[in-house]
Amino acid sequence: MYLIRKDDILTIAKALSSDYQIYGPAVEPLSGQTFFDPVTDLGEINLAAPIPAAPPKSVVFPQTERILSYRYAGGSAPVEIKPDYKEQPKALFGLRSCDLTGIQCLDRFFLGQEFVDEVYRYHRKKMFMVTNTCVKPFTYCFCVCTDSGPAAEEGYDLNLTDIGDYYLVESGSAKGKDLCEKLKLEKAAEKHRAEKNSRIDKSISQFEALSTESKAWVSRVMNRVTTGFAKEAVWEYVGDQCLECGACSFVCPSCSCFNIADSCTASGSCDRLRTWDSCSYEGYSRMAGGHNPRKPVEDRRNKRFFCKLSYSQSKKYLRPGCVGCGRCNWVCPGDIGLPNVAKYIRRETTSREQL
Amino acid sequence: MKQKPGVCTFCGTGCGHFMMANGGAVERVFPSQNHPVSKGRLCVRGWNIHELLNTAQTIPSPLIKQNGQCTQASYDEAVTHVAGKLKSFPPSAIGFLASPRATNEEQFLLMKLARAVFKTNTISLASESGHRNSLNVLHAATGMAGMSGSLEEISKAEFLLVLGSDITKQNPIIGSEIHKAAQAGAKIVTIDSRRTQIAKLSSRFLHITPGSLKLAVAAIARSVFREGLIDADFVRSSTKGFEQFSASLASLSDEAITKGTGIVIKEFQQVAETLKKAKTAMAFFSSGISGLDEDTIGYIFNLFAMSGKIGREGCGVNPVAGLNNLQGGYDMGCAPDLLTGFQRLSDPEAVKKFSSAWGVELNTTPGSSVYDLLASEPSKLRALVVVDHDEGIIRSAEAIQKLDFVAYIGSYTNRFMDYAQVVLPMARYIEEDGTFTNTDRRVQLSKKKLEAKSGILPGWKLLARIAQQAGAAWNYAGPAEVMDEIARLTPAYANISHKILAGAFGGIQWPCNEKNPQGTPHFDLKKAGVTINFAPVSGVFDLPASGADFPYLLMIGKAQDFWHQNNLMKKTFIPLREYNATLLDYPEGYVEIAPETAKALQVRNQWQVKVVSPYGELPLAVKISEDVKPNAAYAPYFAKDKIIKRLIGHSEPLNKGEDATVPIRIEKV
Q1: B58 located within any domain
Q2: Under an 8 A CB cutoff, do B577 and A331 touch?
Q3: pTM beyond 0.90, yes or no
Q4: Would you state the pLDDT for residue B646?
Q5: Which residues of chain B register pLDDT less than 70?
Q6: Angle at Cα B572 formed by Cα B569 and Cα B574, nearest 5°?
Q7: Does B172 sit within 8 Å of A31, measured CB to CB?
Q8: Distance (Å) from the alpha carbon of B515 to chain A's nearest alpha carbon
Q9: Of A154, A158, B423, B537, most Cβ neighbours within 10 A?
Q10: What integer is the mean pLDDT of A18-34?
Q11: Domain around A48
């Protein structure tokens, strides 16, 4: 446990920038939108900025990436294959705890199962995680319902908490501790930890008043989804509102489904691309031969919420598949972000008012 | 900050997005949270636009075709060839086909190239009929040739009427905004002959017989009139022409309405009462390739005028353009009879203004629609310049092949290139600054985000090169200067410039001029100081008749299929897969019929049937759906060519646009 003056906080980012590409929250000036992207100038970093519009998922799992290139001239000519691994060290500076949890879910999907995804592993190999405790929730947040905030508990190298004039800096790994020592950060005392805890308590107490767009009784809904007590008619009510845009999957910190496509030129050189995919698309579950086990949109929609909320899926992530960031609620052109669906399931909403 | 704000360029909604470019590629796209229209949402097309922007299927260099052989050429050679060829034809034999996807600056310069350099007024936009009908009606009624409401104000409307438009598929984010308004308590009424998604999300769905939309709207207007639900003060103080309209409703009878629409009178009355109760109301109908006819739009407008739901916040009659710059194309005068901002070529004052600004004497002989010329036999059209076209034009393929000269200007490879003697590549919209005007008259600046591939010229520069080669002194420094010229010549755009747009996040809605320096969100009756004219209507309701020989009414092209048969979508991965999901199941197209119909015919999903009309027959696969009524059938847009050729023999019935229907019978094979 260390302390750093608020004005000096970027010295940590600066120290990291010699070894890592720094990613951090920055506000686009014209629109006021926060992005968590590679920073071109450390001065852009704004730790007080609202939750980034997009999670940092794209750092380790880009929307579109070339995973290998190959050349095949046809016939019995040999195929030259070149994997395209991105090993560049990356530091995520000022990550929100929900988004760290999202990366942990991705880790368990890509690395923690029978097959290890090499492309992902290279992305993830040399990373430095600096989390930032949310001392105030945002409009769409509900991490308190999904056990993923407002403060990170594990998986970070450093965790920052705004405790007034200082940030409390907690190290969660040897390389985190080394950096603090190297920077000769002032040691923090127990009272600083107590201050952090009181800030967290205050943050949690503010959800009722500030997080007005997202209220989800996730545990209750997990129970209903798992035990089959979510009514078919509710899924139809949800499915009717799905515009099949894919946005919920794209902004979800834990959604990991992808599609593979080859982009080839006439000369026979090809790029194998991996792109984000979404269970809201009809083509996603279509099988060779044309059979589609999830053709109607409501079947595709309930797939998403089974994935996020059922116990069987939680075994994969060792936690709920939802991290409570609320992004699916604000990008949804229907009205079926996860917190809303949780509400429809609990209230058994199945119809809309007629004239 | 590597994220650059921009405008999505698929449909006419004009959603805001951010792009992150890395090297020569667009790494990702992300919705713009605070954008006034899209508020953080994008549809499946918008979310995957980077796949299109990264495609290798672009036109690599100018091409000249001689003796059937295509050879790469320099811009100099190709431009010289085009200018020389065009000069060799009389002006009346030259046509220009503008793209509803090109920027305003490119549209304007193409219009200027046609009229000022090659002296022809034969210039058209693709998908011209639908939107032009809307603009004609709205301009005659309000003086404003564009949506009278505003997308930003959908949340302020208490009543939303959606007419014959599969809006959550065609313009998903507008559909979304309507749905969100409903979730917040607004009433939605959808009138359609097919149960669309928005129908399912409505507070009332009037599932009408195909071809009876106009009658259904007239029926609501009649209920408003007969039940004393008109806004009498508004009609008296702010409108003229109500008497003719109300008189035209008198000839309708309850029996005729119910027989024609399949809906009982009480339902129309309930809709009329809901409209009356609502303080604010908007109507939405699609206005693209197969938009509504002027008469139907006239009835819609009149319904809203008699109800006092026009000319103030949260109100409006709103045509929805299917393509991103269709509105801008008309604003820039890409029509035989129009100059910019709906100024008429028949107006001597306007012609004088343009002639003196451009230093040429404009030809005032009206031009013709390129499509009309292509369809006429023999055609006086001999040379055609086409900009950036989707494949809809291929329906005129035979006529185009007969032309003496065709030049194609575009960014992406396209089947149209096969018909062209000269192909001129131009930079894509992210490779140059340019503006687009969406369906609610919102002019937005899209900034350059990538360098064009080596040597590829931006559209404005390419058009200037052609003009210079043809002897005109065009010396624009860039697209911003083109916009300055547009502003000088166009009252509705008078205060618009790239500089102002660069600081106006989310764009500015025209008219933007001295009187409206901040732009104009909705048609404001007080501010405009005009009298609203009721639209003249025919009082004629020709309903397609089904009979013993042809018992089903086939809807054609209505509720256009998700993807517009779009040249652009085919260059992506994820949207292409979705497009193919339908094509793989139904490679030759399908006919959608009700479960009752399928039972009567004893057919199942994907079985082949023969669809027979009085003009011909067509084999199609069956798709069973509860979305059509038992007396109706639906064939999607991608089978439209075949339908024109084989079921109706000519395209005339399609002039009814969204409401086009053909009586058919279906035979099991």
Answers
A1: no
A2: no
A3: yes
A4: 63
A5: 127-129, 288-290, 390-395, 557-566, 637-659
A6: 100
A7: no
A8: 26
A9: A158
A10: 95
A11: 1-61+85-212
Tell me how far apart the alpha carbons of residues A183 and A177 are, in angstroms, rounded to a whole number.
10
From chain B, pick out residues whose CB is under 8 angstroms from the CB of A32. Answer: 34
Residues A193 and A233 in one domain: no
**Facing A259 at nearest CB: one of B573, B580, B585:** B573
- Which strand ranges, in their side-by-side order, compose the sheet holding B405-410? B69-72, B63-66, B422-425, B405-410, B383-387, B94-98, B123-125
Tell me the two tokens of residue A29: 């000036």
Q: What is the CATH number of the domain that holds B639?
A: 2.40.40.20
Cβ distance of B1 and A330 shorter than 8 Å = no
Whether A247 sits inside 8 A of B47 (CB atoms) is yes
Residues in chain B: 669
The pLDDT score that the predictor gives to residue B377 is: 81
**Interface contact A35-B28, CB threshold 8 A:** no
Domains of chain B: total: 4
**Is the Cβ–Cβ distance between B318 and B284 less than 8 Å?**
yes
Selecting from A62, A292, A355 the residue whose C-beta is nearest the C-beta of B204 gives: A355
pLDDT at residue number B618: 86
Burial class (CB in 10 A: 0-12, 13-18, 19+), B530: middle
Assess whether A204 and A233 both reside in one domain.
Answer: no
- Of A46 and B556, the one with more pLDDT: A46
Q: Which residues in chain A have Cβ-Cβ distances shorter than 8 Å to B151?
A: none
Confidence of residue A301 (pLDDT cuts 50, 70, 90): confident
Q: Which run of H or E residues covers position B611?
A: strand B608-612
The predicted structure's pLDDT at residue B2: 86
- At residue A253, does pLDDT exceed 50? yes
Is B439 within 8 Å of B321 (Cβ atoms)? Answer: yes
Mean pLDDT calculated for residue range A36-42: 93
